[in-house]
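ok new one. same drill as before - structure tokens go in, u give me an amino acid for every spot. 405 of them this time. try not to just spam alanines like last time pls lmao
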């Protein structure tokens, strides 16, 4: 028997360049089914559900939805609220009174946990209901996924940014540090490695949260590269940790801010880059040292969108509607790589995704822990899409000197 009722779609957490592809995929696919009476979008994620702040996507034109799909960031706006059991009871209460039978939540691992708790409320109330978690995160840290929608585009941004930083660093040599997002997983920082085309290209050093960050080894690495090349470009994850497991960025201040999920705030400050720059200046006596924090531009750049990322983000939204409405099942959509390069989409139990974090496998990181392997580059390259930036150097021969021989 068909389950007749409304659909609610919401978005949560940090935006991405392709999150609206998932929204539009879920909305348009849902609108095809006669048992779907309305398709709503909740503004500001679960906050919008509790406050009944819905927009009727059934009345949105297909043409405009397609334009929205190609627009970065969260069209439905987002939230950092992490609902507890009581909050999820309120969510379910609103969904039930509006005769919502299908709930699609686009977000990371915390969002999958929200879907799980809301689904449990429906089970206890004996209310027939289907809830699907649609994956999204630039961190690429959802378990059981080969990769996550949003990552490919952010990785493309990081790779092309470091291409530019490398060209700049080669023109006017010195030490340059780029701080990249990544709390527990180094996938995004590791994407900087795609800037390495010629043997002496940077980033020459890459530091990830998966390896202990030791100041002495860091300074020795920088000195070796600088002495050999006369310059050094470095990519650093904002979440690098010391031997005690503490984020290096958190050791720089007495006042540690935390977000609503209890995580230490790492973004929004250039303190980590400044500290590493000062170390190099004082300990290695190098005067030309600069640091940049890439920050929020990594998430929603309209000029660095991977076509592969777009297509997959669209399909996970479509698959969510198909799994829920056709197959009448709950769970989290996952992306599985089936070749080079092809993917398939599978549904897994929410409990297997919720509140878990995937990190870079050891095979992706070099032995010293200051770079990545070719295996990682092979993994990443198809995800950043077609027409990735490509740099070239002059190959003309040198002219023979006359005076300065």
């Amino acid at each position: 028997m068909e389950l007749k009722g409304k659909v609610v779609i919401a978005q949560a957490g940090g935006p991405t360049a392709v999150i609206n592809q998932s929204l539009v995929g879920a909305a348009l696919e849902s609108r095809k089914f006669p048992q779907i009476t309305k398709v709503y979008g909740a503004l500001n994620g679960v906050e919008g559900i509790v406050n009944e702040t819905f927009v009727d996507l059934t009345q949105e034109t297909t043409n405009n939805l397609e334009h929205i799909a190609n627009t970065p960031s969260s069209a439905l706006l987002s939230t950092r609220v992490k609902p507890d059991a009581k909050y999820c009871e309120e969510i379910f209460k609103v969904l039930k009174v509006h005769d919502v039978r299908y709930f699609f939540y686009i977000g990371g691992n915390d969002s999958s946990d929200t879907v799980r708790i809301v689904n449990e409320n429906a089970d206890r109330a004996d209310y027939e209901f289907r809830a699907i978690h649609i994956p999204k995160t630039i961190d690429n840290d959802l378990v059981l996924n080969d990769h996550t929608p949003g990552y490919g585009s952010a990785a493309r941004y990081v790779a092309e940014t470091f291409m530019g930083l490398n060209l700049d660093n080669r023109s006017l040599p010195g030490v340059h540090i780029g701080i990249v997002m990544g709390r527990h997983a180094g996938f995004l920082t590791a994407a900087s490695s795609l800037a390495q085309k010629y043997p002496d290209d940077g980033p020459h050093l890459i530091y990830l949260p998966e390896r202990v960050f030791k100041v002495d080894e860091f300074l020795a690495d920088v000195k070796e590269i600088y002495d050999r090349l006369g310059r050094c470009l470095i990519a650093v994850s904002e979440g690098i940790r010391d031997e005690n497991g503490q984020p290096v960025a958190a050791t720089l201040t007495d006042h540690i801010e935390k977000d609503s999920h209890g995580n230490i705030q790492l973004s929004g400050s250039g303190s980590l880059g400044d500290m590493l720059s000062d170390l190099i200046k004082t300990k290695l006596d190098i005067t030309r040292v600069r640091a940049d924090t890439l920050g929020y531009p990594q998430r929603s750049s309209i000029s660095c969108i991977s076509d592969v990322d777009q297509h997959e983000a669209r399909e996970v939204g479509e698959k969510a509607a198909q799994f829920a409405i056709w197959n009448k099942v709950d769970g989290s959509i996952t992306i599985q790589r089936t070749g080079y390069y092809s993917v398939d989409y599978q549904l897994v139990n929410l409990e297997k995704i919720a509140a878990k974090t995937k990190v870079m496998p050891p095979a992706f990181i070099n032995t010293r822990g200051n770079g990545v392997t070719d295996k990682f580059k092979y993994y990443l390259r198809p995800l950043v899409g077609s027409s990735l930036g490509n740099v070239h150097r002059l190959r003309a021969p040198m002219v023979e000197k006359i005076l300065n021989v």
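The chain has a mean pLDDT of 94. and btw The radius of gyration is 23 Å.
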